[in-house]
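Reply to dn_fold:

You asked what the input looked like. This is it:
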Amino acid sequence: MAKIVLGLSGGVDSSVAAWLLKQQGHDVTALFMINWHDTTGVLTGDCPWDNDLMFAKLVAKKLDIPFKTVDLSEQYRKKVVDYMFSEYEKGRTPNPDVLCNREIKFDVFLDEAFKLGAEFVATGHYCRKSEIEKDGKEIYRLLAGADLNKDQSYFLCQLNQKQLAKSLFPLGDISKPEVREIAKKLKLASADKKDSQGICFVGKVDLPVFLQQKLSPKKGDVIEIPVEHFDKPQQTKYTGTEHELKELSKPFIYNKNDGVKIGTHQGAHYYTIGQRKGLNIGGKPLPLFVIATDIDNNIIYLGQGKDHPGLYRNGLFIRKEEIHFIREDLLMAIDEEREYMIRHRYRQPLQKGKLVMKAEGLYIVFEEKQRGITAGQFASWYNGDELIGSGVINA
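and this is what came back:
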């Protein structure tokens, strides 16, 4: 039996995780995190923490486990929200959930759990952990959840060996429908509670309003890029040269003369690659999508149709300081190449690709063109169902 502190959010996943741990005979304490107070830009009724707190208390009482709260809002603002603002200001689209796990749930929260005497922390993530021994050393592996429709290993792609060593994932081997069924049989308050959406611990937001806390509106041009712009032959395959790597991983760069002005916007930093909603421009044969943003000149570029070539690229680049290997024993040497299965956003089916390590960073070249590769997001690479590493997409 181990002393375990579980992050009880008030949702059904962490609720059932708590029950499973107790069934296994562990000494379980529930710890609820308060990470955000400001409601600027938060859509009414979405993920208010006081409502989550009520559900968490009811679940803890039903399961007869100690319940405590901790306010980590100061650390959350500094480590997650300020990072978000900084990334959007640079024209990149961050993934706050990945940062929240690395910086809060498995760092600051871990420290708070240890203060309560915890031997391990547990969460309601759908993923698995295993251990192997290599060269006399124990190595922890992060594996996809058994329910591939709900697998959340991607959100944990920045964890390290120290964090994994102290983490437990009770839901790794069961499915979401099974979790709902268990919660209903136990008559837990969270049984029918909807899954949270939007920014981790903040909720679903009106992004421009939320970002306006620090990033002021600024009127700029909207330029439509015609499909004909891509009539010239493009580099599409990697055969081994460094020139090909750089060409394949470059984002598309446009200027005003490449297209036609079709409207205005209130700030290029409010938009992201692949975005369709919130453009407020109609009258076109096909839906418009953001295919590029130019922060320096405050321009957004659009293309018609989900198959517009401006949405598709063969590769991406990660700077050396933003490369992270969960499996440190599998670090790559300069000029080394490896084939892995890769995803560059959550819920994307794994894609075949090649990792090529260079002195300046890591290049990833896909077997097939990928839609919506976005700077600021995390690319992660898998060997089978094991997540090996990840990095922030620079371009």
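The mean pLDDT is 92.
Hope that clears it up.
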